[in-house]
Amino acid sequence: MTDYDPRTATGIPTEPVGSLPRPSWLQQAYARYDAGEITREELEAEQDKAVRDSIEHLEATGAPIISDGEQRWSSFATYAITDTLAGTGLADHLAGTGGQYFAIFADGHKRQLPRLTGGPFRYQTYAADTLAKSITMAHKPMKQAVIAPSMLALLYPLDEEVPGYSQEQFEADLVNECEKDIRQAFAAGAARVSVDFTEGRLATRNDPRNPWTGRNMLPHFIELNNRVMDRFTAEERSRIGLHTCPGGDRDSVHSADVPYSDLLPSMFGINAGYFLIQLASERDKDPVYQLIGENLRGDANGVTQMAYVGVINPLNPRVESPEEVRDALIRAANFIPKEQLGSTDDCGFSPFSIDEKPSHGSPDFARQTAWQKITNRVEGTRLAAEKLGVG
Ligand SMILES: [Zn+2]
Q1: How far apart are the CA of 38 and the centre of ligand 1, in A?
Q2: Ligand 1 centroid vs 149 CA: distance in angstroms?
Q3: Which terminus of the chain is more exposed, N or C, with fewer CB under 10 A?
């Protein structure tokens, strides 16, 4: 546990989601590892180099809390179960083919999960395993993102029973693993831990190409997340967040057309202490600010919830100015109590390890853009806090 106070540097708290684009040379190293041309140790040396570069640049933005950019992860959703997106180093009891699509994106590309073939389900890599390596390179407090139990619940086949391993047994194991993932991240030194819940908004989409999205799974997703939250005290949950977004991969989204009113009223029923909410890329922001103000809870089993609204769009290369960030937060404060307001990026800058960042032209240019965007998020947040008299 650390003594990080999110108001010290900027008055209004500000925090990233987690990921950064992997440099093109690191993406090539992943491909060479998949092809058997380099060893795992050689891949890790490249990951070390990318983390060091990410931390140096993030610290230079003035951000009070940083991540390692998830440079060591196959993706935000699969770090626990596979070394690479191609399936190298897949965990036990999983098959690389025949799994569900986690999402089908607006540009037509798909991301698929492995399929569970037996039990017991165990993580192969905990977030703390990679954080422990990265934190030695950092001079500022670090946050850690972890995957939600509701995402990994999709590993279980939608309509079949896994022989000898019921869905109930699997979900009991899954909740235990998620709890362990969060506890170990705190033990490794994370100041805050946020749970990635991108599948929440997708859960009411009812996309016939992706059957699980038509099964009304949102209430079950909320319940699974609360089974994990309920393992933590109110004080611990004040440092545990939850992230919602319409996806952010290859500069495309999977559920921006799903109205937030389908999700937000039930999402705040999750007993997390704070929420990282995509908002900068929403066309009509006031109704979303209003929904947040109406549903954010002053007492979620002993913790006052905070809403960190998105002020930066990582999918768009245009850099938001500090004044834009300031004005967005001041507008949001008309609907959300200013003591419960924070700022964030709409999403990670690149949740999957292999991502060309097509709207940016290259992942390397997208990294440069990210440093500037984060610098302006921090500065704009400080300006808003001054204007609103917070902190
Ligand atoms: Zn996201």
Answers
A1: 31
A2: 15
A3: N
How far apart are the CA of 224 and the centre of ligand 1, in A?
A: 19
pTM exceeds cut of 0.90: yes
Using the mean position of ligand 1's atoms as its centre, give its distance from the Cα of residue 239 in Å: 19
- Determine the average pLDDT of the residues in 312-325: 98
167 CA → ligand 1 middle, Å: 27
* Closest CA relative to residue 204, chosen from 212, 195, 213, 196: 213
Task: State the distance from the centre of ligand 1 to the C-alpha of 307, rounded, in angstroms.
Answer: 15
For residues 222-243, average pLDDT? 98
Question: In CATH terms, is domain 14-388 a member of 3.20.20.210?
Answer: yes
Query: Domain residue spans in the chain?
Result: 14-388
Structure tokens at 62: 């003035």
What's the 162 CA to ligand 1 centre distance in angstroms? 30
Q: Binning pLDDT at 50, 70 and 90, where does residue 1 land?
A: low
Residues 6+ apart with CB under 8 A from 192: 4, 6, 15, 65, 143, 144, 239, 240, 241
Helix, strand, or coil here: 226?
Answer: helix
Q: Average pLDDT of 347-367?
A: 97
What is the tens place of the pLDDT at every residue in 273-301?
A: 999 999 999 999 999 999 999 999 999 99
